[in-house]
């Protein structure tokens, strides 16, 4: 391909809104342009690499027996109403109506569509297991699309869904997917950190996320210095750093003095309060009022909940409370993990309550909530709180706190759960080693769904005994755009992209010093030879200075550069210079051997990545 016949609009300057390398370089290398916030167009160069990532994913899916299908992107809203996600997905779901007023969804993911397809075809256990996938457009109305295609609104995802008669079969396919994912990322030249996305320290292999390390990563990863524990902070747990109730507290712990109300004028923050009372944040019970939406947990008998009504968001969905408020109590030095909180409450959504709600429910200005005497909402306590027997907490009135508060004596939580956000320095739940943090981006996710969708969407088959059964299900996603951007994040330098051979838009770039005369003839001949050897070559036939061409060759990151021209070409044994993109210096190769040399190197590099 000649550059003048392609469309590779490289840029000298970084686009103003690009913060990360992949976003900058995809624009500058002429791979990508923006249509609107979160909406991008791949230009020819970008699309070539994109297709290569897709191809690698496709090959690995095919290799484990997952079958590709091509459903539509726009799917009937009815399917989403059946699963209950028409409501629970919130604003990120793009809902549209057609001219007849029927509801549709622009797929953000496709559990519903695949479940519905399989539901219509499934009759016998003999058809299972069945694993289907697509590589297709998704739309999520992300609140803050950012970092180019890393978090777009429209993007392409490979999503696979598998259906099984039993757990062993699901486990086996889930494991095969995990191995396929590792191969996909290796073949793309990506270093990934697989992290557990389930909270269980050891058991439970229900969900695994594949992360790439990134300073701008949206995820915090918790890793152990001493063992291979790795978890998303959303789910990470840690070893208790307190004595559980009933366990001997060191020595003969004296019972705490009676609870006492104290004046704390003009003291607002926990730090100020600690200074004022000469105590430690660890002796403080921080209490936060949360609003939760679509709560499945049974709240009958819970304080302040007698008037709440339950309803079904969808015919087969479980009953939920539309809205409920909770007081979440946690040790003063810790932060609430909202993912754990939502899981404990079985709530679709949790968020800190508005100030006006806090004031209404606690009868005090914000900052004085506490679990003692709080009857308006259920108290949900983190496990750490149960170990506090002489603590300080808000007294539900302005400028007043309680001290000598004992959990179990002065208040009893309605529910106790692990709600803390694990941080660096906490202890590994598996081996007790020190935990540390890294930032990362999620590239892929594999998940044992169990019966969640197959039940709500009414899938069934007849087993060996002619009995009707519900299949169990898994789902497996990889973001193609995000994977491509991550390759650039991992493989670039100050001058541009440094593509791994497997996903490079072209293998070789031919740079004639001046595209005319003998140089032109030699360049054209080399391009032809490479083509016949199956090597993808881009020929820079522009009328530009060599410096400009070299800069663009570095920017676009094509793995092998061949310079044609100058003295080397003129002699009786004409030679060209071959240089790897990451190499400092090139080497001279006889023109007659150049195509073969390049071809061998391309094959070797691809083989290495694919091995
Ligand atoms: P995130 O936490 O980053 O929003 P997610 O957990 O919502 O991701 P999944 O629903 O598991 O993502 O989707 C599978 C894959 O799709 C992700 O691992 C990621 O690679 C990709 N993906 C998800 N959202 C986006 C997006 N807005 N832009 C690009 N890729 C995305
Ligand atoms: Mg995910």
Short recap of the structure:
With 611 residues, this protein is of the alpha+beta class. The protein has 15 helices and 32 strands.
Query: Which molecules other than protein and nucleic acid are bound?
Result: adenosine-5'-triphosphate, magnesium ion
Find the CATH topology of the largest domain. BirA Bifunctional Protein, domain 2
Major sheet size, sense and barrel closure: 9 strands, mixed
* Number of helical elements: 15
Question: Which characteristics define this entry?
Answer:
binds adenosine-5'-triphosphate; binds magnesium ion; alpha+beta; YbaK protein; single chain; about 600 residues; Rossmann fold
Give the secondary structure arrangement, pairings included.
Blueprint: H1 21-28, E1 32-36, E2 39-42, H2 44-63, E3 67-68, E4 74-76, H3 77-83, H4 85-88, E5 94-97, E6 103-106, H5 111-121, E7 130-139, E8 154-164, H6 167-187, E9 193-196, E10 207-213, E11 219-224, E12 230-232, E13 260-263, H7 270-277, E14 285-295, E15 310-311, E16 320-331, H8 338-345, E17 347-352, H9 355-362, E18 379-382, E19 391-394, E20 400-405, E21 415-417, E22 435-450, H10 452-456, E23 461-462, E24 468-469, E25 472-479, H11 480-490, E26 492-493, E27 496-497, E28 508-512, H12 517-532, E29 537-539, H13 546-556, E30 560-564, H14 566-570, E31 575-580, E32 587-590, H15 591-610
Parallel strand pairs: 3-7, 16-18, 18-21, 28-29, 28-30
Antiparallel strand pairs: 1-2, 4-6, 5-6, 7-8, 8-25, 9-10, 10-22, 11-12, 11-22, 13-20, 14-16, 14-17, 15-16, 19-20, 22-25, 23-24, 26-27, 30-31, 31-32
Adenosine-5'-triphosphate binds near residues 142, 152, 218 and 481.
């Amino acid at each position: 391909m000649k550059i003048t016949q392609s469309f590779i609009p490289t840029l000298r300057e970084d686009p103003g809104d690009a913060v990360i390398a992949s976003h900058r370089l995809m624009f500058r290398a002429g791979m990508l342009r923006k249509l609107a916030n979160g909406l991008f167009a791949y230009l020819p160069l970008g699309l070539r690499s994109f297709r290569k990532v897709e191809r690698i994913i496709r090959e690995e899916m095919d290799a484990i027996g997952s079958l590709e299908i091509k459903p539509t992107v726009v799917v009937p809203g009815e399917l989403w109403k059946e699963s209950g996600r028409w409501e629970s997905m919130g604003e990120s779901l793009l809902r549209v109506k057609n001219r007849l007023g029927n509801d549709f969804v622009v797929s953000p993911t496709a559990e519903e569509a695949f479940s519905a397809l399989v539901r219509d075809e499934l009759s016998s256990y003999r058809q299972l297991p069945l694993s289907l996938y697509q590589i297709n457009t998704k739309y999520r109305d992300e609140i803050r699309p950012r970092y180019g295609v890393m978090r777009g609104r429209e993007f392409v995802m490979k999503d696979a869904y598998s259906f099984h008669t039993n757990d062993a079969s699901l486990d086996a396919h889930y494991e095969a997917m995990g191995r396929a994912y590792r191969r996909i990322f290796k073949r793309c030249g990506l270093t990934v950190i697989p992290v557990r996305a389930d909270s269980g320290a050891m058991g439970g292999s229900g969900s695994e996320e594949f992360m790439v390390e990134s300073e701008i990563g949206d995820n915090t990863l918790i890793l152990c210095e001493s063992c291979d524990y790795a978890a998303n902070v959303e789910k990470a747990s840690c070893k208790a750093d307190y004595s559980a109730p009933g366990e001997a507290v060191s020595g003969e712990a004296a019972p705490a003095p009676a609870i006492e109300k104290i004046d704390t004028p003009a003291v607002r923050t926990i730090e100020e309060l600690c200074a004022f009372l000469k105590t430690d944040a660890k002796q403080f019970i921080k209490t936060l009022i949360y609003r939760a939406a679509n709560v499945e947990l049974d709240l009958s008998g819970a304080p302040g909940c007698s008037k709440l009504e339950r309803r079904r968001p969808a015919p087969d969905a479980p009953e939920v409370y539309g809205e409920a408020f909770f007081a979440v109590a946690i040790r003063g030095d810790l932060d609430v993990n909202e993912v754990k909180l939502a899981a404990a409450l079985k709530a679709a959504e949790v968020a800190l309550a508005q100030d006006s709600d806090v004031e209404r429910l606690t009868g005090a200005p914000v900052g004085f909530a506490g679990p003692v005497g709080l009857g308006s909402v259920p108290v949900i306590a983190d496990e750490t709180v149960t170990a506090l027997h002489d603590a300080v907490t808000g007294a539900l009135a302005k400028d007043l706190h309680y001290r000598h508060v004992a959990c179990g004596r002065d208040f009893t939580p309605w529910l106790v759960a692990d709600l803390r956000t694990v941080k660096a320095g906490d202890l590994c739940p598996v081996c007790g080693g020190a935990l540390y943090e890294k930032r990362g981006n999620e590239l892929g996710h594999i998940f044992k769904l169990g019966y969640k969708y197959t039940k709500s969407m009414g899938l069934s088959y007849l087993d060996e005994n002619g009995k009707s059964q519900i299949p169990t299900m898994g789902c497996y996603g990889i973001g193609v755009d995000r994977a491509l951007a991550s390759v650039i994040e991992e493989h670039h330098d100050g001058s541009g992209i440094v593509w791994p051979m497997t996903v490079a838009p072209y293998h070789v770039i031919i740079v004639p010093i001046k595209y005319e005369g003998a140089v032109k003839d030699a360049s054209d001949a080399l391009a032809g030879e490479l083509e016949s050897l199956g090597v993808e070559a881009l020929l820079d036939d522009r009328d530009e200075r060599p410096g400009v061409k070299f800069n663009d060759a570095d920017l676009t990151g094509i793995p092998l550069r061949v310079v044609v021209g100058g003295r080397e070409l003129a002699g009786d044994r004409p030679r060209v210079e071959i240089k790897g993109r990451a190499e400092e210096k090139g080497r001279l190769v006889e023109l007659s051997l150049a195509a073969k040399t390049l071809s061998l190197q391309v094959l070797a590099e691809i083989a290495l990545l694919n091995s």
